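In response to a reviewer's request, we include the raw inputs and outputs for one of the modeled complexes. The two entities were modeled together in a single run.
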Amino acid sequence: MEFFMANILNFVCYFPLVGVVLIMLWPKGKEHETAVKWIANLVAFIGFLISLPLITQFNNPAFIDMTGMRYVIRTNWIDALGVQYYFGIDGISLLLILLTTLLGFLSILSSWNAITERVSEYYCYFLILQVGMLGVFMALDFFLFYVFWEVMLVPMYFIIGIWGGPRKLYAAIKFFLYTLLGSVLLLLGILALYFYQHSVTGTWSFDVLGFQNLEIPFNLQWWIFLAFFVGFAIKVPMFPFHTWLPDAHVEAPTAGSVILAAMLLKMGTYGFVRFSLPILPQATIHFLPWLLVLSVIGIIYGALVAMMQKDMKKLVAYSSVSHLGFCMLGVFIATPVALEGGILQMLNHGISTGALFLIVGIIYERRHTRLISEYGGLSHVMPVYATVFMIMTMSSIGLPTLNGFIGEFMILQGVFADPDYRSWAIFGAAGIVLGAAYMLWLYQRVMFGTIEKDENRTLPDLTLREFATFAPLIVLAFWIGLYPRTFLEYLHEPVNQVVEKVRPGEFMPLPVQSAETK
Amino acid sequence: MLKYLWLIPFLPLIGFALNGMVGLFRIWTAGQRPSRAFVATVACGSVLLAFLLSVACVWGLAQHDPEHRLVEQDLFTWIPGAAIRTSDGELTAFTISWGLQLDPLSSVMVLVVTGIGFLIHVYSIGYMYEDPGFYRFFSYLNLFMFMMLTLVLANNYLLMFVGWEGVGLCSYLLIGFYIFKRSAGDAGKKAFVVNRVGDFGFIIGMLLLFSYFGSFDFGEVTEKITVLFPTAEAGWGVLNWIALLLFIGATGKSAQIPLYTWLPDAMEGPTPVSALIHAATMVTAGVYMVARSSPIYSRAPEVLLIVAVVGIFTSLLAASIALFQRDIKRVLAYSTVSQLGYMFAALGVGAVAAGIFHLATHAFFKALLFLGSGSVIQALHHEQDMFKMGGLRKYLPTTFWTMWIGTLAIAGVPGLAGFFSKDEILWRIFSSPEGHYLIWLTGVTVAGMTAFYMFRLMFLTFHGEERFGHGAAHHIHESPSTMTVPLVILAAGSIFVGYIGLPAWLGVTNIFERFLEPSLEGAYHPGHGEVHFPLSTEIAVTIISVAIAVIGIFLSYYFFVKHPESAARLSTRFARAHHMVFNKYYVDEAYDLLFVNRAKDLGNGFCRFDERVVDGLVNGSALATRISAWISGQADIHVVDRLVNVLAEMVEFFSKAFRRLQTGLVQRYVLFFVLGIILIMSLYLYLGA
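The model returned the following structure tokens for the whole complex.
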């Protein structure tokens, strides 16, 4: 047990590889596919279970090192370059890791009937993808981070390119190349930091926390910020780097879309929080007006484009652009409330948009079309589905008691707390109105009215397996909406550290937690 | 009992969860609907318990001294505080609790909501009995009760907003309850989106509120305001902005200009829903919110004027539309908008108690009228056009006389509930320093119009000749007792609730106003400019408004009983004006033209922009890459590789040439050797010389 806890990050990160090995060794052929599915599901589920101790021991002082990072694993890796194998997590990465292990399992579960070709390959790619994503959230060495960042690209490329829709090759290549372009600039930025650090301290190191303590001159910050910005903004994606997203989403298989929306996009937002803001604080403040403009354009533009889509998946994809605009608004303004809201909104987006892609996938599997006009009146034949869809629609448009509201409101209130940029909250709030318009319109066109198409008359309602993929997401949506404390409490400490870098002294000393439950 | 305050909203929540889950589960697993008895017992039982508990709690509260009539109950910390700065630079924590409070103002609301809510639940058993969505209907209705009770019991703005949005969701679900009807879905969506436009204001108002006062808690905000603003704010400052933004939210929820257009469409929902949500409770949330914020509004004179003007003007506009509608529910819907306008007018002149009083009485008689109309509609198999009714009094006796009581009450006939509350509002508008005689005059005119259209409704529905198909007559029968008993109880209420707020000129204290006083303590009273009118003026003002109502009644009688043909003649004579009003002044069309279609155009424009420009750039750069790749490919083949090949060819060429020299014949080598020597020697001799 002790050994397990000391190396828990390794276990959580690499456990999916057990599944990969087992699937590879398993005999091939159609008759063995069920076994392969079981292996993948079980491994993903166990992977989720073994990530749970991360929560229970989070505040155990035995696992906290002096930087405040938890469960740190640190050894030399490539001595010549000063590269270390350096894992560690804080509250921000904790939440994202748990979301990854959960959604990884759910999307594997959702693939049971959807994938019929090259089954074992599919699950292998999915499990490798899982490793890449978890590694990104754990790495504290920039080199190691970059390795995982690129590892993640490859399986996703194949998932879209092999199991995707009619234009899968176009989408897969666009996804790959676009992201790669960003990665290259990111790498340049990392190298600039690396050499600068050597010129100042004389040591070769990729230690992220070390970079955070550098006093980088503004000119250099300016350039590195731009390089990082392109890398992360493509991933988020922020306007105008977003056009790979609808193509990738439309062509990807359902589970691919879920992971793409829920986790892959978070790499970008996470990158901003973990690297751009604390390492390059002055540049962040310098670019703030532009960043806010892009975020706000994303919110409103994404919503308006989403409104006019005819393809359900494309609609949800554009709604992601809008929601992530919200996230970025909160992240960049970097007041504690807004940043906490922005990070919470990352989870919220993962939950509600992930669920919405699953929802689209359910009827796509039954009818093989994503056109809104092909549906209508489904709530007559699929009442449980209608309920789940309604809950997730409301979660997506930020109805109070559900998760989206907490994040959105905290972001807006946090933006309002900076008197210079107060008016930007108004644009954000306008996004809330548009959000209701496009989601409710979608819901109405798909679920309400009479059934026009004969094929829709006999659509079966959710199966137990399908419902099982939604149940945890519904629980989480209400949990965050009603008792966000559970989640926000992990964020106070790391968020304050980031804020203290970007806005030194502005929110210090910390106010006393006045209102405990009376 | 007060410690069980939290149970009041919680009970209907349990009802919702139970009915919703059991119902859905049975359909999912067994394909059967849950039994109606079970659903009805759970739904009505939970609301009945909530009502009884409310009565007990209010009773408990009334035992306290007037200045201690406030019970707060923080259930848990909802949002834990990260650091935030208020605009005066103070560092504070963004901590918001899920807390309830009961004070006189919320007591009134809780009693109205649970009491009338319970009656409407019972009525719905009969009304919805044949509907396959029986369980769904009741679970939505219970959810609505939870949200509405959260709204009125919340002790802070953000939690109030939870209820505020929650009732909006329920309204959406219930308007669109008949899911097979396209118009119902449209109406539900319209209601939600229009409300969201209002919420946009509400949200920004809240942001501003927190950033100035560092709290959402009603008590704390009031405390801060009384310190920071001992008197009313001069000019357009932050308080006025907060008040205006919150009021925008109220215009959405309470259907005032410019956001009233959703309410008439909301009549697509089942009639009990119209009664509960779109007449008695939810639409009054805006009134409640403004009353609750009276510490802010009373210090924001600019906005108070806006509230009063918007209120009275909405009331006039809606009443004028109601004059000509044919659909019985739409008449009542516009009437509701109009009456809500009255309440806002009262709030706008600082007469909060009068506004809330009218809210309470209106809840009774409007719920009664809607439920009565539901009884009529059901008897006629979903016929809503009043011109296809007539003479129904002998078929629906109970509905007939209860609705008459409601009509007399809303028309302001002395002795009934509506008379006291409406009279109170009109008097306050007349006498208050914030009031204006033009507002009063408009208000009195609206009273006359109200009497006119309500009597028209009654005459067309229950009196005169039978205009429905003659075969239908023997199908028509009075509704079951689950529906008529609530009607009777509401009718009794419509008569008697007015007596809790008897006006001062009768020489008694206004119990209602006295009871509310502690809740309105934080409000600012200018204390000057107050004119004391003699008793005779007050009585004269009352007589005038009653007289105007009587004129309205008389006109109605003249046009719809005495000379039915003259109404038609008049409307053809003034066809254009009639058309204009009948079509609701084309406001919906204008909104579609100005906003809805423009938003769609913008969306379409952005779609094209996204495809052609943003993605065009990406694909363009891909294309450019491919072209340059092709060019370099060609260059590679034709230039670079060609060079290599040319080099090779040259070598080949020369080697071919030189090969001829290398014959291997020694004699030839010797020959070249000799020739060479001769050549060099001759060159040497020639050049050297």
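As requested, we also summarize the result in words. The longest strand of chain A covers residues 70-78. Residues 514-518 of chain A have pLDDT under 50 and may be disordered.
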